[in-house]
Each structure stands twice: as C-alpha cells, then as structure tokens.
Write a structure and sequence with these properties.
The complex is a heterodimer. Chain A is built from eleven helices and no strands. Chain A is mostly helical. The longest helix of chain A has about 35 residues. Chain A is elongated and about 75 Å long. In chain B, the strands form three sheets. Chain B has a six-stranded mixed β-sheet with strand order 6-7-8-3-9-10, with helices on both faces. The two termini of chain B are about 45 Å apart. Chains A and B meet through helix 1, helix 2 and helix 5 of A and helix 2, strand 6, helix 3, helix 4 and helix 6 of B.
Chain lengths: ~280, ~350
C-alpha cells in the first residue's frame, strides 16, 4: 500500500553529503581586471592547444601572401629579389598582420553566441576582460605570423638595412596597428554576432585596402583617383612606416608617426565602443 | 541560514511588474515574484512561457523594459555587480566551454571568481571528485554526456558557494538516472542554505524539489503556492484501486460507490478503478475515507493488489489553472487514468 503516494514522494531524503561539494563561503570576492584578462588570455591559448588547426590561418595567410606575391609581382617591380624584396616584404608583413586580425573578431563572435559567454557575463568580472584577454592572445598570434614573414623573407634573400633593431621595431609597429584593428573587429563581432559575417565584413574592408595600396605597385602607375585613394589608405602608411624601419630609410620618421597616431586613434574610438557593446544588457 | 545574512536585507528575490518586450511580443507581462531566503522556488511553465527571460533579468543578463526587481537586496540594474558576486547561473543558456577540459573549465571559472591559481586548481579537483567526474577531468567538455555536462555545469556554479543559485531547466533532455542525480545535488545545495530558483517544464520536477511553485504562462504568473496548494485548487485527488482479479471489478465498483458516495470510474486497465474525492475533503478525511473503503472491500472478499491515494497531477492542475493543456513537452509520471 502506498498511502498517500504524492506525500511520500515529496519527503526529502537525508542528503548524502558528497565531500567537497560546497566550499565554506567567505565574503564575496572578485577577480581583479588584470587577473581576469590574463585568465581569458590563458583560456584562448588553451583553446589553441586543444585545436591547433586554429593556427592554420595564422600560418597559411603570411606564407601565401609572402611567397605568392613576391614571385608574382617581384618580376613586375623589377630588379633582383634582394632589391624588390626591400619594397615588397615590409608590405606583405603589414598586409599579413592586417588580414590575420579578422580572426580575433570571428573568435569573439563565436564566443558570444555560445552559452559560456552568458556565464562570463553573469560573474562579477571586469567587463573588458574577455576582449582584452583575447587581445593578449592575439599578440602571440600576430608575433607568430610576423616571424613567419620575416623568416621567409630572409630565406628568399631579403636583407634588412635596419638590422635586427629595425625589424623588431617594424614588427612591434605592425602588431600595435593590428591590435587597434582587433578592437574594430571586436566591435563588429559584438554588433553582428556571427563569425562568418565578421569575416565577410573584414574581408570586404581589408582586401580592397590591401590591394589599393602601395604594397605591391608604386601608385604613380595608377589613375589619379586611385592614387588619391592609395595615398590616404592607412595600409599604405603602415607599409611605408614598416619599410622605413626595416630598411632604415626613416628620414623624418613621418610614416611611423602617422602610423602611431592612427593606431592610437582607432583604439581610442573602438575600445570604448567595444566595451560599451559588450556590457550592454539585451 | 546565517550565510545568507551577509548580503543586503529582505527576501532573496522580490520582483514587481516585470515586463520584457521582444519585437512587439510581451515575453513578460507583469511578473510579481517573492522568493524567501533559503527556499527552493520552482518556476513552472511550458516552452516560451517566459521562465528563461525572468531568470535572465534576475541574473542581470537582460534589462527589464518595465517593473523593478531586487535580488539579495540589490537592484537588478544598479546593483548588478553586487548580485553577480553573490549569485550563480546554471542552465540552458549559461553553460561551459566545450573546447576546454572539465578541469580547465573549473579553473577558469575559479580564477574569474577571484580564487588564486593554486586555490582554483584545488577547488576544481574537489568539485570534480564530488561530482564523480575525476576520471574525465582531462577530456574536453564537448565530449561529455548530457548528465556529465550538467554536473560540470552545476560544479562551475559552486566554486564559491553562492547565496542564490539560478537553475534554468537543469534536467531538460536528461535520462531518468541523470535526472535523479541532479535532483539529489539540488537538494544538497539547498540543504546547505543556498536559495534556489529553478525553472522547469517538468511538473514532477517542481513537485519533487520546490517548496513553493509559481506557474507561468504567456508571460504571466497564473498560480502560486505549494505543490499541495496548487493541487488542492483542482480537487483532493482520487483513490485508485487495482484488483488481483478482473472478475471482481463490478463487485468492487458497487462497494466503492456505496462507501465513498462518488462516481466510480473504470480505467482502460480491466483491473483498475478510481474514485475522485470531494474537493472539500481535508487530508485527514481523505485518509479515513480510504481506510474505510479498504475495510469494506476486504469484508466483501475483493482481493486488492494495489491502492494509491493520488493527489491530482500537476498536469491536471496546469490544465485547470491555465485553461489549456500544457504543451506536449509537459508530462507527469503520475498521470491519473480518467
């Protein structure tokens, strides 16, 4: 006889206390901004460790751009490889890093559509930490891509006039510029929330900017309107600055200064915008 | 529960007139809710009724379009960091990282909860052991079964014991064994003094776990009370009898009709009978009536295999309270034969 059934089933059994289930709770703590950002950076690196194919883009794009374009456009530019690589290689370095930046945005868009993003937001963590942590891991990715370009260049016969200090300064400059673009794609990612769409938008911006620049061809062979565009194109300025540093041709350092100002300006606009979008409650 | 006294005063959750509008649809249409500290509160309703939206607002993930809510004494808009530091969310939407291992997931969450690296690792080991996941701690969470995933998910919410735990449909899509494991865990968490707000579309789940239940439908709360109170609103239930021998059914029918003074219903099962009990009968009366009926059956030499005094199922309660059947997803293991 089960009398009365419903009441019996509601009796709460004495909990069999699994050891360690509940921690003694103190006053609520929260992770500091730096610790939280470092944690998200570590998380991004763990993801690369578990899925190394994530690095395919970071390897394939610099290799393709550097090798293909050097041999395709090298002859048109003329001279010996050692000669035209002086113009071309700093350009491919700038372009490779610029293209690689879009994958950070795609990763963020991926993150915000998965359930774990809401869990992150439900914790008392500094709002910029997820984005900043991603950027920290991006520094590693950009550095990896930059090393590939430089090593390939050296193998193909490029001899930087600026020596190691010039190359290091150029790599630091493109990484800084790349990080400012990362903020831009992070803002786009939070707006569209679709990794594929982030890639499409970034491609639609970066591919024309990369080709309508002075990376491959001197603008004097182009029609006037295109020359005008090439001369205001930020990628042209970054390529010029990189050339100056790598080849030690920086006279007044104009392009380098321009590049640093542009990096700061893009960051100042898109970093706050990104943080605002991240924190917005829907 | 002295631990709960550390946060702001008042009830764990106090919401007034919560409204949320998504593209012209009022997903929440004026929700009032009070959850006392230390309580397990069940939020019951079909898919799309507004359960998850309510939890998202209370967990500070979504801003209400109207109304106010205080959680652990803090406003959900202006006090969200204070709430986030004291509450934890587990469920359909707040989940874990599939690419990371179980251990890495817990260490990441531990670091974000303000634990040191060493303390995070230690706590991750403890929780993995407590949740019977030590053997898979090095495997990516994406490879976990549904039950393991939900246990890891719960573990992530318990790294620092929260004052308030939001559980959004903790057992949806689970096999019965995993379901009862999760129920057991929820009971342990509640026994330690954490307030639990649980949403579910399973009537049995609310019945099993929650001391207080609110039934939500179309963004409104249509009923609230204890499981027994809600059931009482649709009557006191039915006495169900199963016989050993189907030949005796008409004899049993006559005895029960005489004793209980009610219409005796014959189930599809040739051995079963059921008698609805009067709505006004209180619990003691019901027990006495049932005992009386058993005595009479025994005197008439009717062999009884099983007797169940079933309160009406919450499924029936839902139908009575909302005026429509619960969506097909809503089921109850103790549905009564008509």
């Amino acid at each position: 006889m089960t009398l009365p059934a419903a009441t019996a089933s509601r009796a709460v059994p004495q909990p069999h206390r699994a050891a360690g289930l509940l921690a003694p709770s103190g006053p609520p703590r929260r992770a500091g901004a730096i610790a939280a950002s470092a944690t998200f950076g570590w998380r991004a690196i763990l993801k690369i460790k578990h899925e190394p194919k994530q690095l395919t883009d970071v390897i394939a794009i610099p290799v393709l751009i550097t090798v293909l374009f050097t041999y395709i456009f090298g002859g048109a530019i003329g001279g010996t490889p050692g000669h035209y690589l002086k113009t071309l290689l700093p350009g491919t370095l700038s372009m490779s890093i610029a293209i690689v930046t879009m994958y950070g945005g795609a990763r963020l868009a991926q993150d915000v559509t998965t359930g774990v993003f809401d869990r992150f937001r439900s914790m008392a963590v500094w709002r910029g930490a997820l984005v900043l942590g991603g950027l920290l891991s991006d520094i590693g990715r950009y550095l990896f891509a930059a090393v590939i370009v430089v090593v390939l260049g050296l193998i193909m016969g490029y001899r930087p006039g600026g020596g190691a200090p010039g190359v290091i300064a150029a790599v630091a400059l493109v990484i800084a510029f790349g990080l400012s673009l990362s903020w831009l794609w992070a803002a786009v990612a939070l707006l569209v929330r679709d990794p594929a769409l982030v890639i499409s938008i970034a491609n639609a911006v970066l591919i024309p900017l990369s080709f309508a620049s002075n990376i491959f061809v001197q603008p004097r062979t182009m029609p006037g309107w295109l020359q005008a565009f090439v001369n205001v194109n930020p990628i042209s300025h970054v390529a010029n600055a990189t050339r100056d540093l790598m080849n030690n041709t920086s006279g007044a350092g104009g392009p380098v200064t321009w590049c640093l100002v542009a990096t700061a300006a893009i960051t100042l606009v898109f970093a706050p915008l990104t943080l605002h979008l991240y924190n917005k409650q829907r | 529960m002295s631990r709960n006294g550390t946060a702001g005063g008042g009830p764990a959750i106090e919401a007034h007139g919560l409204v949320k509008i998504y593209g012209g649809t009022r997903a929440l249409d004026g929700i009032d809710l009070t959850v006392q500290r230390g309580q397990v509160f069940g939020f019951l309703g079909p898919n799309g009724a507004g359960k998850t939206t309510t939890i998202r607002i209370l967990a500070t993930l979504t801003r209400p379009d109207g109304g106010t809510a205080r959680v652990l004494g803090f406003d959900v808009v202006s006090g969200r960091n204070a709430i986030r530091a004291r509450a934890a969310v587990t469920g359909q939407f707040a989940s874990i990282d599939d690419d990371l291992t179980g251990h890495e997931n817990l260490v990441v969450f531990g670091r974000l909860r303000g634990l040191s690296r060493a303390a995070s690792r230690r706590r991750a080991d403890e929780l993995l052991a407590a949740f019977d996941l030590t053997g898979s701690s090095g495997c990516p969470a994406g490879s976990y079964s549904g039950g393991m995933r939900r246990r890891l998910d719960l573990g992530a919410s318990l790294i620092v014991t929260p004052d308030l735990l939001f559980l959004d449909e903790p057992t949806t899509g689970m096999d019965p064994r995993s379901q009862s494991q999760v129920w057991e865990l929820v009971r342990q968490i509640a026994a330690a003094g954490t307030t639990v707000l649980l949403t579910t579309q399973y009537l049995a789940e609310a019945d099993q776990l929650a001391e207080q239940i609110a039934v939500i439908d179309h963004g409104r709360i249509v009923a609230e009370g204890t499981s027994a109170q809600l059931k009482a609103r649709v009557g006191s239930g039915a006495l169900q009898v199963r016989l050993l021998d189907g030949q005796q059914r008409s004899q049993a029918q006559a005895v029960l009709a005489r004793t209980l003074d009610g219409p005796v219903q014959l189930g599809a099962d040739p051995l079963a009978l059921s008698v609805p009990l009067a709505a006004q009968a209180d619990a003691a009366d019901v027990g006495r009536l049932a005992g009386h009926a058993m005595t009479r059956l025994s005197e008439a030499r009717v062999a009884v295999a099983e007797v169940t005094l079933g309160q009406p199922s919450l499924h029936e309660a839902f139908l009575a309270l909302t005026g429509r059947p619960a969506s097909p997803a809503v089921t109850d293991h103790q549905d009564v034969q008509p």
